[in-house]
Amino acid sequence: MTIISISLNDDNLKALDGIQAMYGLAGRSEAVRRAIGAAQAEAQDTMDMDGAVEGVLIIVKKDHADPWMSLIQAKHEDDIKTQLHSHLKNHKCLEVMVISSDAKDLAAMLKDIHAKGKADYVRFVRS
User: Fold this and answer.
1) Using one digit for the tens of pLDDT, what is the confidence trace for 14-44?
2) Which single residue of 2, 35, 77, 121 has CA 20 to 30 Å from 14?
3) Does residue 51 have a pLDDT over 90?
4) Could you tell me the residue range of the domain that residue 21 belongs to?
């Protein structure tokens, strides 16, 4: 196995320790491997989508004042059929969107969202 060095902020470290405890893993390395496996499975689900897809996209964004999500929504407005915006505590916002799109367009939208790194939570639930 290859050994690498990574930097984590306090929230990431707390989450990693929580994953380790939740699953009873032997150490943080096992928790990192588990998290990578989960992220890979989610990415594979996106890559496996083909043709027309419909579902609900749920996003929790970190900062209400930051317009990054509005710009992405404008770029993909033809794929968003309905949307709901709700203010949460700590200046966060919940975005819920009903999506009807070609799989490639949805994958591009998800890539745009993840690339910004400004969402605490992103999940597409396919119908």
Assistant:
1) 999 999 999 999 999 999 999 999 999 988 9
2) 2
3) yes
4) 10-46
Can you read off the two tokens belonging to residue 25? 């893993």
Identify the three-state secondary structure at position 16.
Answer: helix
Residue 35 burial (CB < 10 Å; 0-12/13-18/19+)? middle
CA distance linking residue 18 with residue 61, whole number of Å:
22
Tokens of 11: 């929230």
Q: Are strands 93-102 and 80-87 parallel, antiparallel or unpaired?
A: antiparallel
- Residues in contact with 107: Cβ distance below 8 Å, sequence separation at least 6, in sequence order: 46, 47, 49
Residue 3 domain-assigned? no
Strand 52-61 to 119-126 pairing: antiparallel
Can you give the pTM of this predicted structure? Answer: 0.82
Taking phi over 0 as left and psi of -120 to 50 as alpha, with beta for the rest, 2 belongs to beta
